[in-house]
Predict the structure.
Amino acid sequence: MNAYRRRIWREFEAILLELKCNRVLDFGSGDGWFASQVVNAAVCSELQTIDVRRRDNVQFEPITYP
């Protein structure tokens, strides 16, 4: 995990925990790294990722919209 992802995840996780979300939408999910962190942290019960294309080596499979 690089410094950027570490920093953004700390901020993002704090927001999700405070909001007590049941469902999360990750649009522009890229390789799915942030989505995988959401799942690993168990901060929501349902997660959906969306992107305009599927990338190689995704960590969380997105729905693609061209």
